[in-house]
Specification:
single chain, 344 residues, mainly alpha, cell membrane, transmembrane, UPF0324_pro, transmembrane helix, membrane
Length: 344
Amino acid sequence: MGSQATRGYRGPPAARRLDIVLQTPSRKTHTSVLPGLFAAAMAVVLALAVHALLPVLSPAVVAVAAGAALAASGGVGERLLPGLRLVSKRVLRVAIVLLGLRISVPEVLAMGWRTVVIVLVATGVTFVVTPLVGRRLGLSPGTGLLVATGVSICGAAAIAAMRDSAGGDDEDAASALGVVVLYGSAAIIAVPLLAAWLGLSPAQLAVWTGAAVHEVAQVAAIGAASGVLAAAVTVKLGRVILLAPIVALSARARPGAGRPPVVPLFVAGFLAMVALRGTGLVPESVTAAVPPITDVLMAAALFGLGTGIDVRRLLSGGRALLLGGIATGLIGGIALVGAVLLIP
């Protein structure tokens, strides 16, 4: 992959950038990561500042948009790539591991069997059906699987976690990332408006939001504005737990994948952190510090991934956007019907 990324590459420029960004850094480049790390740090500062001014825009969404904007302006030079590679792979995996400390298993289990059923059905159906629809639309299997993962689990972080297991190329990852961020951001406005129009109760809104909206931060934004923050985020974290088994099963099921580990190492770390949090041994001061730390790390990583998005290609592609809309409508519709029928 490395030789293709640096010599004789004939694919789209955005795919070439993302291909280089996602390579594992070598020791020979350790002195050249600073420009890319500095760019990522500036993007994180921007993302946090925008989020402070406009809480409905999560740092992750702002960071992805900043990366895509930098790429569109032609500002992703060769000097930035080693640092972007570092944040897009290693920093991202650390963030996903730490994400496990944000999940309280007792709180998730306390959601009740009705909510658990809604989450499992909405997530499972969307994850299975979306790749099938993608094939009908003529999209690659990698694009379908990555869009399915991002929509059904937890947005951009899920796409990044699934990328190595999906068997897709870098254009697949960039398309899925852009699509999920686009529809997830639109949900921040659409979900509260639709909930008010439909006359949903606070409990129904919390379950619908947590079971259907892509990013944790987007769920938090809707929940905070609607007064259902804790319940909505708890339901959402019930979906996040499903990231580990879905990534592990996809890695083992992919043809030609050889003999992958039972779970990727960072996914095992994620599960270990969930288990550690469940023991009750983690001090409250630590669990309180984890969310802002993971937000910063995730924003840096997603900025790096965002530099691989070709906005013009995404908007003109049509089929990936259509698939994202279908998947978003599917999970939103199933979760809404379940909330109305099962949640008082």
